[in-house]
C-alpha cells in the first residue's frame, strides 16, 4: 500500500533470543520464531520508513534476492496477523 | 545427562493474598502467608536468572498481584531482564495512576479475570463485590492502550452464560477471551460437586463458542480450554512436566505447575537455596516426570505419549493416589471409569446459583484439610 510506514503493533516485541539463538516476535500469549530473513525485514519497520524504503535498503544489503517481489507480500501477511500496524 | 530445553514462561505467584475467594482458585489449599513472601529484590534476582535460562514471558499473578506495593519495581526488573510481562489480575485495585505506573515500568499486557457476565453472579462466585472494579479496570487498561485479555473459569454456575460472557469481553475491549473449563485441583477439587457441569451444558456452550468464534474471527480471539473429564482425552498438561514453564510460589518454592505442591514426596526446590538453573535442569522435582521414561501402563507404548505427555500428574494423583499412573481422563486409562462416574453423576439438589454450594477460598479450607475426592 502506498504511504504505509509499517511499525510493530504496540503489544509486539521483536527480540533476539541468545539462549535459543533465534529471532522472536513476542506477543501477550505467544511467541513466534522468525525464520530466514524475517527479522531483518521487521527490524526496519520503525514507523518512519515506507515500504519502498524498506525494499530499497534490503535490496542493497542482499543483492540478487527477490526483495521487491517478496517483502511487500510478507509485510501484508504480517499486518493481517495484527502484528504490524 | 543432556540439559532439557529451556523454559519459555515463568508464572510468578507474587502473593497468595487476594480480596476474591473464588471456589476454584488455582492457589494451593495451604496458602503462603504474607510474611513468607519473597522481597522485590529477590524477585528481581529470580527474573534475571529466568532470563538467563531462556524465559521469554512472565505472568505476574497471585493471589492478587496488585496487593504488592512494590509491583512496579518487579515489572521493571522483568523488563530490564528482557522478559515480556503480563499482569494477571482480578482488577481490584487497578486505578488509572496504578496502571500508568505499571505501564511506565514496562508492563506489556493485562489479563483480567471475570467470574460471570452479570454483576451479581460474578460477585457471588468471587465471594466479593468486585464486578464494578473489573469493569473499571478494563477501561483503565484500554485507556493505557495495553492489550487486554479476559480469563473466565467455566463451570456449572456460568456455562449457560457463555454467550453473554463473550459479549461482555467484546464490550470491554478484550482482544482475547480465554474460556477455561475448570480443572479439578486444589480448591476446585474441594468444590468439585458444586462446579462439575452437565454434559448438556458443555455441548451447548461448545456450540455457542464455535459460532461466536466464526463471527468474531479477526477481531477477538476465543480460546476454549477443554473439559477433560468429559472428552475422554487427556490434556497435554503444562506442555509436559518441566518442559515449557515453571511456577514460582510467593515463598520462592518452584514447581512445574501451580498444583504440583499437592503431590506427596515431591521435594519442592526453593530459589532461596538454589539457582533457577539448577532447579530447572537438575532438581529431582523437575526431572521426576520429565520426558517419557517414567511412563508405564498404556502411556509407555502409546503413539500419543509425545502429544499429551501422559496427561496430568496432579490429576492422576488426585484420582488414583499414584501420580505416575496414566491420567484417568484418558479413555485408555485403566482408571477411566473413575472420571466417567464423576462426569455422569447427577447434579446435587441445590440450584447452581446457590452460594451455599461453595467452599470459598480463604486462609484454610472450612470443611477438611485434605482434598481427596
UniProtKB/TrEMBL annotation, chain B:
One of its GO terms (biological process) is pyrroloquinoline quinone biosynthetic process. Residues 4-219 form the Radical SAM core domain. Binds 1 [4Fe-4S] cluster. The cluster is coordinated with 3 cysteines and an exchangeable S-adenosyl-L-methionine. GO terms for molecular function: 4 iron, 4 sulfur cluster binding; cyclase activity; iron ion binding; oxidoreductase activity; S-adenosyl-L-methionine binding. Its cofactor is [4Fe-4S] cluster. Transmembrane segments: none annotated. Catalyzes the cross-linking of a glutamate residue and a tyrosine residue in the PqqA protein as part of the biosynthesis of pyrroloquinoline quinone (PQQ). NCBIfam families: PQQ_syn_pqqE, rSAM_more_4Fe4S. Belongs to the radical SAM superfamily. PqqE family. Interacts with PqqD. The interaction is necessary for activity of PqqE. This is PqqA peptide cyclase. It comes from Streptomyces sporangiiformans. The gene is pqqE.
Amino acid at each position: 500500500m502506498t504511504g504505509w510506514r509499517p511499525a510493530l503493533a504496540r503489544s509486539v516485541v521483536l527480540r533476539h533470543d541468545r539462549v535459543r539463538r533465534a529471532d522472536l516476535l513476542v506477543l501477550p500469549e505467544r511467541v513466534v520464531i522468525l525464520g530466514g530473513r524475517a527479522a531483518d525485514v521487521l527490524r526496519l519497520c520503525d514507523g518512519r520508513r515506507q515500504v519502498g524504503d524498506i525494499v530499497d535498503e534490503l535490496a542493497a544489503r542482499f543483492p540478487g534476492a527477490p526483495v521487491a517481489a517478496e517483502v511487500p507480500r510478507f509485510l501484508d501477511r504480517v499486518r493481517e496477523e495484527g502484528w504490524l500496524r | 545427562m543432556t540439559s532439557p530445553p529451556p523454559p519459555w514462561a515463568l508464572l510468578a505467584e507474587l502473593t497468595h493474598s487476594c480480596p476474591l475467594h473464588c471456589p476454584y482458585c488455582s492457589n494451593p489449599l495451604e496458602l503462603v502467608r504474607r510474611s513468607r513472601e519473597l522481597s522485590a529484590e529477590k524477585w528481581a534476582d529470580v527474573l534475571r536468572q529466568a532470563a538467563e535460562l531462556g524465559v521469554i514471558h512472565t505472568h505476574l499473578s497471585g493471589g492478587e498481584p496488585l496487593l504488592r506495593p512494590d509491583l512496579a519495581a518487579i515489572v521493571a526488573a522483568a523488563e530490564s531482564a528482557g522478559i515480556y510481562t503480563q499482569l494477571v489480575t482480578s482488577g481490584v485495585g487497578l486505578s488509572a495512576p496504578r496502571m500508568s505506573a505499571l505501564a511506565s515500568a514496562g508492563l506489556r499486557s493485562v489479563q483480567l479475570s471475570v467470574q460471570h457476565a452479570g454483576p451479581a453472579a460474578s460477585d457471588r462466585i468471587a465471594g466479593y463485590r468486585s464486578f464494578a472494579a473489573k469493569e473499571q479496570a478494563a477501561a483503565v487498561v484500554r485507556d493505557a492502550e495495553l492489550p487486554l485479555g479476559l480469563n473466565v473459569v467455566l463451570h456449572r454456575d456460568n456455562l449457560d452464560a457463555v454467550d453473554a460472557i463473550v459479549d461482555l469481553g467484546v464490550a470491554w475491549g478484550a482482544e482475547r477471551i480465554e474460556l477455561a473449563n475448570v480443572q479439578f485441583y486444589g480448591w476446585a477439587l474441594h468444590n468439585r460437586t458444586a462446579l462439575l457441569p452437565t454434559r448438556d451444558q458443555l455441548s451447548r456452550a461448545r456450540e455457542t463458542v464455535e459460532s461466536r468464534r466464526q463471527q468474531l474471527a479477526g477481531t477477538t480471539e476465543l480460546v476454549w480450554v477443554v473439559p477433560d473429564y468429559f472428552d475422554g482425552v487427556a490434556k497435554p498438561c503444562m506442555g509436559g512436566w518441566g518442559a515449557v514453564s515453571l511456577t514460582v510460589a510467593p515463598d520462592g518454592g518452584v514447581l512445574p505447575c501451580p498444583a504440583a505442591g499437592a503431590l506427596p514426596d515431591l521435594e519442592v526446590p526453593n530459589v532461596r537455596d538454589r539457582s533457577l538453573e539448577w532447579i530447572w535442569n537438575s532438581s529431582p522435582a523437575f526431572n521426576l516426570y520429565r520426558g517419557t521414561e517414567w511412563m508405564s501402563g498404556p502411556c509407555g507404548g502409546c503413539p500419543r505419549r509425545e502429544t499429551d505427555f501422559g496427561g496430568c500428574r496432579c490429576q492422576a494423583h488426585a484420582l488414583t493416589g499414584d501420580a505416575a499412573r496414566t491420567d484417568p481422563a484418558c479413555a485408555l486409562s485403566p482408571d477411566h471409569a473413575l472420571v466417567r462416574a464423576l462426569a455422569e453423576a447427577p447434579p446435587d439438589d441445590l440450584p447452581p446459583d446457590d452460594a451455599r454450594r461453595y467452599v470459598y477460598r480463604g486462609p484454610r479450607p472450612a470443611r477438611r484439610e485434605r482434598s481427596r475426592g
